[in-house]
Design brief:
The chain has about 400 residues and is an alpha+beta fold. The chain has helices at about 5-15, 20-55, 70-75, 85-95, 130-135, 145-150, 160-165, 215-220, 245-260, 270-315, 315-325, 330-365, 375-400, 405-410; strands at about 60-65, 100-105, 110-115, 120-125, 140, 155-160, 175-180, 180-190, 200, 205, 210-215, 235-240, 265-270.
Length: about 400
């Protein structure tokens, strides 16, 4: 029997027992679908984490003022005033491999309005080099410059959602907005970054949507701030390309500890470390979910073995006749292995379609980012075929070892 004849015979046999074939394939279908959908969710989550870290800046280190209870804050303020201008200068002068240091102030607001609108936008005081640190792209106008910062200019740049809130479809650049009791001229509008999250682990991302940016010097001088609050809410440090972020983070932490007399009034966020942790978590998720999905493939393989064993018993007399007219053991073994492969291949194809459908459903219904990769399809299909052929080998070997005389006598 040639391979072509074996395949034709296997397909005819499967078509003759449609219900049994379908039941044998179910485990493979669900197993392959589960593996593909789980790996696609994992790949999507990893890509989303990478995009988020890129918004934070992989070469950045972020010092963030801690939020403390009133009594604890008073005790801490006896030793440290919090993140302040002296920290910026000390980091710029004392930390090797530093390219830029930029403070940020989160202004406490009770109103943000224009002549025709109102917004619940956050207001951040930042330096003129902020766009270079967090990759902010402008859609209209300009970002404020060093001269604006030096003069404590009352200028503002709007995020896209803040622009819609305050100006709707009217021109924004050149318009005026009021933050608390201070008026600002709008000089630019930031382009939509496409991200839904404005924060990652409590740290503000670069191109947040509902935010108003003003010069940090203006926020310091012209807007009221709690006397016990840290002068700056965050200090972002951009490292040179040849500087190792984790090593620089340890040096930075030592430096700031000394400046703050050991007071634990700040946190250090290392985006590179967050990415590494996210990837470790994702790998664990993939292993666990892949193992659970693999159980379905194992169950499917057992189903295929049971079906083929039953088929061997049903076709014992047929096997005896074929052996009697000259079929070799190899021909019998090949026929049953081809049947196992055919069941697995058909189930794998249906499983791939199911996996793609599940991934699309999860992305649409749960709002999770998914990404079906060639790797996930190849892994799921390869494992399924391997399980199917391995499960079919024992029934095939058993059929090949039947004695022709005994097979002919079998009723």
């Amino acid at each position: 029997m040639s391979w072509r004849e074996a395949i034709a015979s296997a397909l005819a046999q499967l078509a003759a027992h449609k219900l049994r074939t379908t039941l044998a394939m179910l485990g493979v279908v669900f197993g392959v679908g589960a593996v593909i959908s789980m790996l696609s969710i994992g790949a999507g989550a990893e890509r989303q984490a990478l995009e988020t870290i890129e918004r934070l800046g992989r070469r950045n280190l972020v010092l963030r003022a801690k939020e403390l209870e009133t009594e604890e804050l008073r005790e801490v303020r006896k030793r440290s005033i919090g993140l302040a201008r002296r920290d910026v200068e000390a980091i710029r002068d004392g930390l090797p491999g530093v390219e830029r240091v930029a403070p940020r102030i989160e202004v406490s607001t009770w109103q943000v309005l224009s002549e025709g609108g109102r917004s619940e936008a956050e207001v951040h005081g930042v330096g003129a080099d902020w766009p270079e640190l967090v990759r902010v792209a402008l859609a209209e106008g300009r970002f404020f410059d060093v001269e604006d910062e030096r003069r404590h200019a009352q200028v503002a740049v709007l995020g896209p959602a803040a622009r819609r809130d305050l100006f709707g479809y009217a021109p924004a650049v050149g318009g005026r907005i009021r933050v608390n009791d201070v008026w600002f001229e709008v000089v630019g509008v930031v382009a939509d970054a496409g991200g839904d999250e404005d924060r990652f682990q409590g740290v503000a991302l670069g191109a947040s949507s509902r935010v108003v940016w003003i010069p940090v010097s203006t926020a310091e001088r012209k807007l009221e701030r709690d006397s016990e609050a840290s002068p700056f809410d965050e200090i972002t440090v951009r490292l040179a390309a040849d500087t190792e972020p984790l090593a620089a983070a340890r040096t930075l932490e030592t430096l700031v500890d000394r400046l703050h007399a050991g007071a634990e009034d700040y946190e250090l966020v290392v985006p590179e470390a967050l990415l590494a942790e996210s990837r470790r978590t994702q790998r664990l998720f993939n292993v666990v979910m892949g193992s659970i999905a693999g159980i379905s493939l194992l169950v499917g393989g057992i189903g295929i073995m049971n079906i083929l064993l039953a088929s061997v018993l049903e076709r014992t007399r047929e096997i005896g006749v074929r052996r009697a007219v000259g079929a070799r053991r190899e021909d019998i073994r090949r026929q049953f292995l081809v049947e196992a492969f055919a069941i697995t291949a058909l189930g794998g194809a249906a499983g791939i379609a199911l996996g793609l459908a599940l991934s699309a459903t999860v992305a649409a219904w749960a709002g999770w980012q998914t990404e079906v990769t060639a790797f996930s399809v190849l892994v799921a299909s390869g494992v399924a075929i391997g399980v199917g052929v391995a499960s079919g080998y024992y029934p095939a070997a058993r059929a090949a070892e039947l004695d022709p005389i005994d097979a002919l006598r079998y009723e």
